[in-house]
Every structure is written in C-alpha cells, then in structure tokens.
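Q: How would the structure tokens look for this protein?
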Amino acid sequence: MEHVYFSPFFFLLGICLYGVFALTRFSVSLGLLERPLVIAFFWGLFTGEFSTAFALGICCELFWIDDLNVGTRIPTSGTLPLLLSLVLINFSELGFFSEEPQYFAPVLVCAMPFALLGRQAELFVRTLQVREHTLFVEKRRGAAIPGYIFFIILGRLLAIQTLVFCLSFAILGGIFLGFKRITGELPVLPGINWYILWAISAIGGYISLRTKRAYLVVSACLILALFTYL
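A: Here is the predicted structure in token form.
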C-alpha cells in the first residue's frame, strides 16, 4: 500500500459508499447490501486494496452480524467504522506505511463507537419524516404523498449521513493526529494479528446464536480448540 500524498479520492469514495448504501436501509428493500463485507468488496474494486478492506470488513461484519435491519428497528451503522478506518489509514499525514494489523487495530477500535452516531442520524431523519407526513396528511386531508417528497427525504438522509461521515472523520482523524504530534508515533497494539481481531469480533456472532443448545455446543468447541492449541 503506497501513501505518498493524501488524495481526496479515498475521502470522497468513503462518503459515496457510506451515503449511497445508507439509503438502502429503508428506502428500498436492499438492506443486506449495506453490510461491511459488501462495502469492503466495492472499496477493493475501486482501490485495489482487497486484502485490507476484507480483513477489516470481516471484523465489522462479525461484530455487528446480529444487528440487522428488521421491521421498524434501526440497526447500528456497521459500515461507518469500516469506511472511517479505510479512509484514515490512507491519510498520509498519519503515515500508515505498514499493513500490519497491530497498527490498524487501534483505528478500528476507536472507529467502532461511531456506528451508534450513524444510527442516531437515521433516527433523527425518520422522526422528522413522521412529523412531516402527519402535517402533510392533515393539510391535504388524507391525500397520498407525491413522489417528489420521497426524493426530498432521500436527499435529506444522504446530506445528513454525509455530514455524519465528515464529522466522524474529523473527530477520529483529530484524535490520531493529536496522539502522533504529542508522542511522535502512532498507537500500536503489539502482538495483535488478524486472527485475534476476528476472534474478538466473533463475539457478535456468538451472541446471535440465541439458543441455549447452540451456546453450549459453540462454547464446548471453543474450549476444545483452546486446549488443543495450548
């Protein structure tokens, strides 16, 4: 991975992927497209960084695998931490010249909480949408909402999610830039590899099992695997 100069390409690509795929969460029934592994594939397609994108995508996918868009429930935005991490490690001012996971792990860990911010942004848009729907129906005495209002809502959601991405990147980038300027180096988690990160992220998949028998079987397999490894 070469990081000679910071290119706005990575930043704009992150905004486009996050904003466009965020529209599939409730505007059309394509919510499964808004998953970290799908986003990782498109990132690799545009940048060629398939290995890094999929490695981070697996972490986000496993961690948020049980948080699905079902019914009226608004899931956390698991793609936001992934895209923030991918954009940030391509920010040459930070100097991520190594592809070792011990350098990427702190970025991913710090980016994870921003998934909640993406959900709050969508909740705000939906709340505003309900209010406008009520006012429109009262004004038009039950008339159907025309299509142009639907596109206005989508445009508003895209604008707000774009703002969320920019704000999140500014905060996350500021944290790492400040850390580097104070200490002279980037935060590192020594001894961390992708397998450890995936194992930690798999907690989300473990929680999603939901049945006692499944918990017992998986727990027994994990204990057996641990003793075999030791």
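Residues 8-229 form one domain.

The longest helix spans residues 147-183.

Upvote if useful.
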